[in-house]
Each structure stands twice: as C-alpha cells, then as structure tokens.
Amino acid sequence: MIKLNPKVAPLTLAVSLALAGVSAQAAEQAEPAAKKGELERIQVTARKTVENLQEVPVAVTSIGAEELAENGIVVMTEVQQFSPNTTLQASRGTNSTITAFIRGVGQQDPLWGYEPGVGIYIDDVYLARPQGAVLDLLDVQQIEVLRGPQGTLYGKNTIGGAIKYVTKEMSGDATLNIQGTVGSYNQKDLKITGQLPIVDEKLYVGFGFATLNRDGFGEFLTSSLDNQDRENYNKDVTAARVTLEYTPTDDLFFRLAWDKTEDKSNAKGGYRLLPSILTDAPVPDSVYDSYTSLPTWNKVELEGYSLTARWDMTDSTSIKYVGSSRESYSPTNIDFDNTSLQIFDVPAIYDDEQTTHELQLNHQGDNYKLVSGLYYYDGESCGQFEAILGILGQSLGAPGLTREVSGCSNSNSKAAYIQSSIDLTDKWSMTLGARYTKDKKEAQVNNGLIFDIVYPESGWVPGYTRPEGQLVPTVLDDEEEWSRFTPRAGVEYQYNRDIMFFASYAQGFKSGTFNPRATTAEPAAKPEIVDSFEIGMKSEWNNNLRANVTLFTLDHKDRQYISVLPGDSAADLNQRLGNIGESTSDGIELELNYVATESLSFDASVGYIDSSFDNVIDYDPETGEAFDKSDRFTVSNTPDLTFNLGATYRMYTEMGDFVVNGNYYYRGDYALFEEDSLLTQDAYGIFNMGITWYSTDGHWTAGLYGKNLTDEEYMIGGYQFVAPDPTDPTDTSKYTPGLGGDNTLIGYYGDPRTVAFTVGYRF
C-alpha cells in the first residue's frame, strides 16, 4: 500500500479535478451544444528527424513552449514534474550543476573524470559535463525527455536517457518580445528575444537576453570572513544568445549560434541536520539557513558556438552537419561542514572545454526510413579542489591541513551509427540500429597532503598568496582505450490508425574512466553497460484522449564505485575505483492527455519503478576474501512512485483569452546516496497553480503563477560524513564523527512557496 503525504488537500483537489473530467465527459454527451476539443499533434526529434510523437516507438515526453509558459516553468529542472521516473535537480552545494537520473540511472558525483548517465543536449549539441546544465529557459521551442538507453543514435553516457533542449527556429518575421517578472524574494527578471530579417527570405538574425535575479531563501547566519554577502539560495544569472540563419536556396540551410551564461549566485550553504560537536552553533530554524567559514561568492561561466548546415539533396535525402565548441569555468566554494570553523571546507575550480562534429544522413524510401552518421568528440575536463581540514591540522600542531586533488581527464571519442525503420507489411514494421564507438581517455591526477591552509588561487580569500609551483605529487598519469558496439532492435504493430504497439531492446554504455581522486597509479574502470527491454502502446481515442504506456526492465552492469579491490595480485588490496556493482529495475510509465471540451483538458503521468542492487563486490582488507555488500546499497534519487495530475481551463472573452491551470506532483520516498545512505527524503507532493492572459490583439500576455503553494520542505542533495553506531543506528547522539572530526550530515532543499507575476509584450 502506498502511504501518501499527510497534507492531502492538494491531492484531494487534483483527484476532484480528475473526477470533474468524468463529469465533463458525461455533460458533453448530455449536451451536444458543448464543443468537443481535439488533441494537438506533437512533433518530436527523438530519432534525429521530425516525427509525430505517436509514431515514435520510444518512451518520450515532450513539453512545448506554450505549455511551459502557461505552467510558469522557467528552468529545465522543473520538467521532471511531467516525465515519469525522472529526477532533474540542482546538485548539492550548487545552483547550476545538474543531478539527472532516469529510471534509476544517472550520475551521483559531478567531479571531473566521472561520466554522466543522462545526456543533456542543446539543439543536438551534447553537454559533456553537468556544470552549468541547469538551463534557464530562453526562447525555447520544446523540451524532450527520452527515457531508456539511447546508445544507438546518441552514443555513450545516455544509458538512462537524454534531455533535449530545443530552441526556436526563426519564422522570418521581424519580432521583438519583452517579458518582465516580479515575485517572491524580490524576484526581478527580464527577458528580451526577437528576430530581424536582414535579407528577406534569405538571412535572419535572432537574439535573446535574460537577467534573472532573486534574493535568497535564507541566509548565512555567521561567517568567519568579513564583508560577505550573507544571502543563501539567491539567484544572479545573465544569459545571452545570438543566432544567424541563412537560406541561400530552398535546399540549403545554415545556422550559426552563440550563447553565453554567467551565474554569479552565491555558493549554497547546506542545512545541518545534526548539531555540530565542535561549535556551539545550533541547528538553524530554517532549512535555507547555514553557517560558513568560506567566501560566499560563486561563479559559473559558460560559452558556446555551434554551426548547423543542412542540404536537402532530394525530396527524400538530406545531409546535416552539426559542429560545436563549448567551454565552462566554475570556481566555487562548498563548506561541507557548514560551520564558521575550517572543519571541512572545499574550495574548487572546474574548467572544461569540448569540441564536437557530427555528419548525418537522412533518407526515406518507399517502405523505410534511415538515419546514419559519423560523430567526433574531443574534450578536456580539468579541476582542482582543496579539502581543508584546518581544525584537524591544528590539533596535530600544524598551521592547518589540506588535501589537494587536481588533474585533467582528456577524452576523445569517435563513432559511426545507423538506424532504420522498415515497413514489413501495412501493419508490421521493425527498427534496427547499431553504433560503434571508440573511446580514448588520458588522465592525470595530483594528490597529496599539505600541512597548511591552501586555496586554489591567490586572492581566494583577502590577503592569501598561493605558493608557486606544484604543491602535491602526480600519482597517476595514464591512458586507456575502449570500444563498444551498441545495438537496438524493435518491432512495431500498427493495430489501426490510432493505436500502435511496440517492443524493443536497446543497449547503452557509460564510458570507462580513471579515478579523479586516485592516491596511487590505479587502473581505469571499464565502461558501465545497460541492457533494456521495453513493450508499450501509443494510442489516441476519439481524437480527444491520448494514452501512452511503457513497461520496461533494465540490467545495469559493471557499475563504477570506490571499494577495496585487488591490485596486481589477490593479496594486493587497495581502495580504488572499480566495476563492482550490478542493479536491475522494472517499471511502468503511463501518460494521459484528455481534451474534455474545447475549453477543458486534463493531463496525468504516472511512473512506478522497482529497483535494487543484485550484487556489490567488496574485499575484506584483512582476509582478502570477497563478499557481497549489496544489502547496504540503494538505487539513489529514484522514488518508486512519481505522478502528476493537471487540469487546464481556457476562457475566451472580449477581454482576451484566459488559461487557468493547476497540477499536483508527487514523489515517493528516495535515498540521496547509494551506500549506507543516512539522507533520505520521505514522500511529498507539490501543488502549483497559474493563470495566463492573452490580449485579443495578440500583443500582450500576463501571468500569475504560484509554485509549491503548500510550502513543502524536501531534500534534493546532501553530504554525509558521519557513521551510525552499529549497535544502535537510530540514536543520532551515538554517531561517530567523520572526516574533519565533526558529525557532518548536511541537506540541501528545493524551492519553498513562491509567487511570480509576469507581463510580456510582442511587437
């Protein structure tokens, strides 16, 4: 039996809305005068070509620009509400780094060198690193969530799925859109987008600019440094985009795009779930309040260029090229212990750059469709962090103690792929695809102890000068290559014009890697592999009910974790990164869209997943014997149940059109860490409402949006450096302090209740 959140008022309302849908249907039958609404056709690019959602044998959720705007969705992480078995959240201690999980597969640790399990794409350009991937929405056309391994068309690191951020193509008309928003916590946002024809029907320029600002949800109650900005969970983001589109002939298209984002929001301070044993600071009253001994400043700089060229050789054949270059720089401060003492502080720098090239061929014959391509990726991911254990160092008689870890992980990847959908009969078709990938990775790790307080750069704190030269030794300098063939096979049955059944098998892999925290010259871990089977149905009924359902099972092998593992011999046991885990997941996903009348519609999505670890291999350091510790592991960031219930009502008046909507989003219990997680979040629900107005002349829009109206507190990240007493694990007073000497158990939380008012004008 499912135990729901005790605050059931929003759920009751959502259920009432659903029951109202049944009543609306009955009323429609009783009163023929009421206009029957019809479903809108949804176009997606899940298979790298534009197709009807209902014809694509892939579990995909697409949220268009209008739906995003009418729900007040302003950042990509909010899309998780609409996609079953999906987690998209800001990572612990950050504002812009994403934690993405789909069907229990993702990336827990965003450190350079580790690879993601969910691919993030902006206009077909892959973002290799999670830093800066919490994207604010600016001139977006749609967001697509592809669930399940996408290894054939999208390559490595999409073993859980992929998120596609698709911007609008230009219409050719001269337009200018200005939108301003004010809201809770002194929110002040401004977005300006537009396009201008330079040569009619040939050359257009588009642009977008956004400044997004908000005070903090909480504050840093104390700081060991003077003159610090004390706001916690604030927002200070500036973003810009310029696009040039050129159509010299009907058969040729070119698109050159540039974008830049600067996030100067403060570093996020965490909430101490346990009182510190080394300070007298109490647990804060608010989950958004914190303490710190680090600077509160933080910065994320992102910049990218891309070129898209398309040549329609014939009516049935086209060639497409997508090239890109992106770089990011993120100096950050994360106070792990969240006190005013230097117990466990981690100032860090992430510095990444990447170049990609993709050449793609699309061809359509009488009874088949084919997409094939060549792909090249070259990236460098570097970083440095200081684990400052000041109090521990002073207890040893030193000025301080710092473990410095730095290095780079350079990746080169080449791939070739092909996928075809073939009509066997009028009703039966099949999909066959394959991709061959060859990866090469070079890694260097510098790691060592310094008996002093050290920061990554001079001036990190006022008056600090970093010593010259490399301060710690190079412990790993190695390279490794892997290659992988990833197939896809499926069969589809078109029962009638509106109902399709499908079954498929797909495989994906996450790249092998070296341990970015290595202390010795340990070998690389091999790639992770996911094998997935799906059966599903896509259906439409009476042109007003869309019902899509998918059942899946997946096997996640060779999962990469730090453990005690044998070296060159069974007697040589060391803690290192290895392929020690295997997990399985079974689940179901249901998405419904019911258009009751021309004015009233309902949406629902439900995801259920049963996931667990089958084995996790470790070795006893004293006996050298292997043992299974899977009973200590949980698939993280994966609630067993997620669902969303929503209703939209449209009113057409002489004053303009009004759209009123509300939705209730529920997430079941989940753990934030795989191994021995002390950070778990109980089930909770979020209720949102909004009203949008469109003027009769089409120029003005306005909206009032309330989010998390019941003000639920829910944890989205954390740190745990504390161990329970095995004799009484429930007694927190008996917890053993972890690294740094304090009972560090820290939580980071999602947004509280907010209300925002938006006004827009279209010239």
Description:
This protein has three helices and 42 strands. With 763 residues, the protein is mainly β. It has a single domain (10-762), classed as Beta Barrel (Maltoporin, Chain A), CATH 2.40.170.20. The strands form seven sheets. The protein has a 22-stranded antiparallel barrel. A five-stranded mixed sheet has the order 3-9-10-7-8. It is globular and about 75 Å long. It starts with 8 loop residues before the first helix and ends with a strand.
Quickly count the helices: 3
Instruction: Supply the helix-strand structural class.
Output: mainly beta
Biggest β-sheet: count, sense, barrel? 22 strands, antiparallel, barrel
Integer tally of domains: 1
Strand % is over 45%
Helical fraction equals: under 10%
**CATH level 1 name:** Mainly Beta
Shape call: globular
Count the strands? 42
CATH homologous superfamily descriptor:
TonB-dependent receptor, beta-barrel domain
Mean pLDDT: 91
Radius of gyration: 26 Å
Q: Identify low-pLDDT runs.
A: 1-34
Distance between the termini: 54 Å
CATH architecture: Beta Barrel
- At CATH level 3, the topology is Maltoporin, Chain A
Question: What does this entry show, briefly?
Answer:
The protein has 3 helices and 42 strands. By secondary structure, the protein is mainly beta. Strand 16 and strand 17 form a beta hairpin.
State the main characteristics.
Maltoporin, Chain A; 763 residues; 22-stranded antiparallel β-barrel; 42 strands; 5-stranded mixed beta sheet
